[in-house]
Specification:
By secondary structure, the protein is an alpha/beta fold. The protein has two domains: 5-95 and 282-300, Rossmann fold; 99-279, 3-Layer(aba) Sandwich (Rossmann fold), CATH 3.40.50. Helix content is 31%, strand content 15%. The protein has ten helices and twelve strands. The chain has helices spanning 14-17, 33-39, 53-62, 81-87, 99-115, 117-125, 151-161, 210-215, 233-241, 284-300; strands at residues 5-9, 25-29, 45-47, 68-70, 90-92, 143-147, 166-170, 178-179, 193-196, 221-224, 247-250, 270-272. α9 (233-241) links the parallel β10 and β11 (247-250). α5 (99-115) packs across α7.
């Protein structure tokens, strides 16, 4: 075993990796948080995903031999990035793993908001036969701004093309047909849909605030599948309560879980989907395992693993 590389992985990934890892790998699957704490100091390659972030951070801190850490999480804002950078640890994340289902959630959200479908469902609960549609907007011919041109944003754009929605995408790096990070605020009033699909970083903290909401069309709908932290939630609530915004479709919010009695639950024309978009599928770990196996071969041959997180930028 001395000449093998110790790879410590979480309990969900381990069964899918059994019998499939290369011969140079000494695979160790942890079965509990306590077991992870025992194995972490041995790990040269790790996949330490836990539901609770605090023990995961502790495990990463204990893993002094770690050279590469993999995660199924796309957002890495809670990882000890400074510690990892100081130790020279490479971090790969789950960017794109859930892009298909999250993009589908965005389109679902747009359709349900456009057609007032939440009112239809509630009418069914009341056994009430509606005489007219509570929503009459068509996606056809509307305009959408996608803030975030990664895998999710790209998939949303391609899906919306089939609905004849005119899409503008905001990207940090220039690309054909896209606008840059300094240009979108001045154009917010042009769009019927503002879709947030950016990572949570210091640069995106509160990027949609009172000024940005005021610049949007009063009929526009804000869709957030990024993180609750990218929106000033108090400013959003004020705009929704005053009917200065057409509505909001929020897969994420602050805090999570949103506590009972929070005013966001009952904000006008607002749908909250409890951060379920990435979970609305069954292929996440299968896809993550296939990517991890490819990356193991790349790592062994000294090739770059992907998608690699910039520990300075946080994504």
């Amino acid at each position: 075993m001395a000449d093998k590389t110790v790879v410590v992985v979480n309990a969900l990934a381990a069964p899918l990796l059994e019998g499939r890892v290369p011969e140079w790998v000494d695979l160790r699957g942890f079965t509990s948080t306590e077991h992870l704490m025992e194995l972490a100091p041995l790990a040269e390659i790790g996949w330490f995903d836990l539901y609770r972030k605090e023990p995961m951070i502790e495990a990463i801190t204990r893993a002094t031999r770690l050279r590469w850490l993999n995660s199924v999480y796309a957002g890495v804002e809670s990882f000890p990035l400074d510690v990892m950078a100081a130790r020279g640890v490479v971090l790969t994340n789950g960017a794109g793993i859930n892009a298909i289902t999250i993009a589908e959630y965005v389109v679902m959200g747009m359709l349900t908001m456009a057609k007032g479908f939440a009112h239809v469902v509630r009418a069914q609960d009341r056994e009430e036969w509606l005489q007219d549609s509570p929503g009459k907007q068509e996606l056809h011919g509307s305009r959408a701004l996608i803030v975030g041109g990664g895998e999710i944003g790209g998939r949303v754009a391609r899906m919306l093309a089939g609905f004849d929605v005119e899409v503008t995408t905001v990207r940090r790096r220039p690309a054909p047909g896209c606008i840059g990070p300094d240009d979108w605020r001045g154009r917010l009033g042009e769009f019927d849909w503002v879709i947030l699909a950016v990572p949570a970083t210091p640069a995106t903290q509160g990027m949609i605030g009172a000024h940005e909401i005021a610049a949007m069309k009063p009929t526009a709908v804000l869709i957030n599948v990024a993180r609750g932290s990218v929106v000033d939630q108090d400013a959003l609530l004020a705009a929704l309560d005053a009917r200065r915004l057409g509505g909001a479709f929020l897969d994420v919010c602050t805090p999570e879980p949103l506590p009972p009695g929070h005013p966001l639950w009952h904000a006008p024309n607002t749908q909250i989907t409890m951060h379920l978009s990435g979970h609305a599928q069954t292929a996440m770990f299968r896809r993550a395992v296939e990517r991890f196996l490819v990356n193991l071969e790349r790592w062994h041959h000294g090739e770059p693993v992907a998608p690699m997180v910039d520990l300075t930028l946080g994504y």
